[in-house]
Amino acid sequence: MTMKLRAKIWFENDGRKAFGDGPWDILQRVERTGSLRQAAAEINMSYSQVWRLIRMLEHNLGFPLLEKKTGGPGGGHSLLTPAAVCLNAAYSHFRREAKQNLDGLFKKYFPPGLFMP
């Protein structure tokens, strides 16, 4: 049996969840596809659920995450705001570095075989 560290990190603003892995993943998908609807489908969430989540995050963060264009001949699309692009990039780097540091601490305090006679 091999133990592994699992950790969830999220940001709060005045005690309200403001950002974490789920929103980060959604924004990455929106950036790649240009569509909030497509991002929702990829993670098996309804469009309305994802849209409510985005609105709640925008409220808790204090800035918009998406620029939306509705309908029309080519259909609508969603783009990340410059602030969302910056947030997602910073979170990507932070997440990677936090995982490396947490893995190092886990190996330091819980080396393989620690609990085996």
Task: Give an account of the 3D structure.
The chain has 117 residues and is of the alpha+beta class. It has a single domain, classed as Arc Repressor Mutant, subunit A, CATH 1.10.10.10. The protein has helices at residues 21-33, 36-42, 47-61, 82-109; strands spanning 10-13, 16-20, 66-69, 77-80. The strands form two sheets. Strands 1-2 form a two-stranded antiparallel sheet. Strands 3-4 form a two-stranded antiparallel ribbon. It is elongated. 15% of the residues are buried. The model has no long low-confidence stretch (mean pLDDT 91).
CATH C-level name? Mainly Alpha
Kindly report the spatial arrangement of strands forming the biggest sheet.
1-2
Identify the quaternary structure here: single chain
Number of contiguous helices = 4
Question: In the CATH classification, which architecture applies?
Answer: Orthogonal Bundle
- Overall tally of structural domains: 1
